[in-house]
């Protein structure tokens, strides 16, 4: 059994729509009602949620966005690269991993509303991370655009968008 197979089985990970595998590990019992949230939210949200997330070198997490800030936590495997495009069209790249002397960080916050994608740096490996979202994640807040939609919005980033989208 490979490390990847072990992690999928051990943590009961399932395929995620953006790519990779995940399992929700926490959903706070507390709820923020619609009146306590910004206008762009429809319905109530839990205070926070957390998942395990696994990417392998033969897959990527496609560009998507959510309304909330999302904190990525590195656990094991290869360094993970996060690609972010702000609503203003600024591109940035961040590495999450355990080699701190090389500028890697063990956690990183993706601002709510920014488009982001992720990939594993190793050519034959995996990245095992966690993601925490507050207010809690709801698929109503999740956008997974088509490639042409994102390129028309950010044409100067067409190369990275083409690489990290599926259709």
Biggest sheet character: 6 strands, antiparallel
β-strand number? 12
What name does the CATH topology carry?
Answer: Jelly Rolls
State the end-to-end CA separation: 32 Å
Question: What is the level-2 CATH architecture name?
Answer: Sandwich
Annotated CATH homologous superfamily: Jelly Rolls
Principal-axes shape call: globular
What is the number of helices?
Answer: 3
Low-confidence blocks of residues: none
CATH class value: Mainly Beta
Helix-strand sequence: HEEEEEEEEEEEEHH
Strand content: 35-45%
Helix proportion range: 10-25%
Trace the largest sheet across and list its strands: 1-2-5-12-7-10
Structural class: mainly beta
Count structural domains: 1
On the 0 to 100 scale, the average pLDDT is 96
Give keywords.
167 residues; mainly beta; Jelly Rolls; 6-stranded antiparallel sheet; 4-stranded antiparallel sheet; 3 helices; 40% strand; globular
Brief summary of the model shown:
The protein is 13% helix and 40% strand. It is mostly beta strands.
Report on this model:
With 167 residues, the chain is mainly β. It has one domain: Jelly Rolls, CATH 2.60.120. It contains three helices and twelve strands; from the N terminus they run H-E-E-E-E-E-E-E-E-E-E-E-E-H-H. The chain has helices spanning 3-10, 147-153, 158-163; strands at 14-15, 21-27, 31-32, 45-46, 49-56, 60-64, 69-77, 80-85, 91-96, 107-110, 115-120, 126-134. Strands 1-2-5-12-7-10 form a six-stranded antiparallel sheet. A four-stranded antiparallel sheet has the order 6-11-8-9, with no helix packed on it. The chain has a two-stranded antiparallel sheet with strand order 3-4. The longest helix has 8 residues, at 3-10. It is globular and about 45 Å long. The termini are far apart.
């Amino acid at each position: 059994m490979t490390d990847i197979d072990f992690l999928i089985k051990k943590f009961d990970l399932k395929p995620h729509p953006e790519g990779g595998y995940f399992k929700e590990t926490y959903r706070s019992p507390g709820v923020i009602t619609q009146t306590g949230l910004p206008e762009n939210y429809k319905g109530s949200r839990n205070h926070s949620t957390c998942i395990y997330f696994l990417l392998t070198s033969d897959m990527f997490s496609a560009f998507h966005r959510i309304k909330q800030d999302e904190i990525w936590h590195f656990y094991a495997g290869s360094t993970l690269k996060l690609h972010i495009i702000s609503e203003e069209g600024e591109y940035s790249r961040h590495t999450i991993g355990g080699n701190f002397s090389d500028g890697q960080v063990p956690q990183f916050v993706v601002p709510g509303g920014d488009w982001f994608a992720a990939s594993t740096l190793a050519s034959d490996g995996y990245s095992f991370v966690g993601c925490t979202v507050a207010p809690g994640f709801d698929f109503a807040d999740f956008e997974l655009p088509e490639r042409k939609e994102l390129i028309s919005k950010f044409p100067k980033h067409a190369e990275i968008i083409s690489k990290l989208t599926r259709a």
